[in-house]
């Protein structure tokens, strides 16, 4: 059984969750190619909407996601990856999770510390 890529123009939401503590790390999107590569390699692959290409998570930073478990929702159109996040950061901004800010009383509050400097990692 595979996700139903006939839905949502073939681009399904994929949630990455820490296998060790359950923390939500990020949300990205998978097409069928990204799914197939993830299943084949055991490393999270996504479809980059901005670059319009297959993306191995961590291909530039080295912060690869090793997939421990894959779950699909009841409609087969959302993917949950339980991963071991190498390097301690899932977010390209250097934070452990893309959800490093909390909304409270109309303000955003940073609730995590970055683990790397993106200007050093992504030297472009």
What does this protein look like?
The chain has 124 residues and is mainly beta. The chain has a single domain, classed as Ubiquitin-like (UB roll) (Roll), CATH 3.10.20. The chain has two helices and eight strands, in the order E-E-H-E-E-E-E-E-E-H. The strands form three sheets. Strands 2-1-6-5 form a four-stranded mixed beta sheet. It has a two-stranded antiparallel sheet with strand order 3-4. A hairpin with a 4-residue loop joins strand 3 and strand 4. The radius of gyration is 15 Å and the shape is globular.
Q: Output the CATH class name.
A: Alpha Beta
Tell me the overall shape.
globular
CATH architecture: Roll
- Which radius of gyration do the C-alpha atoms yield? 15 Å
Which stretches are low in confidence, meaning pLDDT under 50 for 5 or more residues running? none
C-alpha end-to-end distance: 40 Å
Assign the structural class, choosing from mainly alpha, mainly beta, alpha/beta, alpha+beta, or little secondary structure: mainly beta
Largest sheet: 4 strands, mixed
The CATH topology comes to: Ubiquitin-like (UB roll)
- Report the sheet-strand fraction: 35-45%
Q: How many β strands by DSSP?
A: 8
Q: List the total number of helices.
A: 2
**Multimer state:** single chain
Strand order of the largest sheet: 2-1-6-5
Compact summary:
The protein has 124 residues and is mainly beta.
């Amino acid at each position: 059984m595979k996700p139903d890529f006939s839905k949502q123009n073939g681009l399904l939401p994929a949630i990455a969750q820490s296998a060790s503590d359950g923390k939500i790390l990020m949300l990205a999107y998978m097409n069928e190619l990204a799914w197939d590569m993830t299943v084949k390699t055991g490393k999270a692959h996504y479809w980059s909407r901005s670059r319009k290409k297959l993306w191995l998570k961590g291909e530039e930073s080295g912060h690869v996601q090793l997939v421990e478990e894959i779950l699909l929702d009841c409609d087969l159109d959302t993917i949950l990856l339980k991963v071991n996040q190498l390097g301690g950061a899932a977010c390209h901004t250097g934070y452990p999770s893309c959800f490093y800010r909390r909304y409270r009383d109309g303000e955003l509050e940073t609730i995590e510390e970055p683990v790397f400097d993106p200007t050093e990692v992504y030297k472009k």
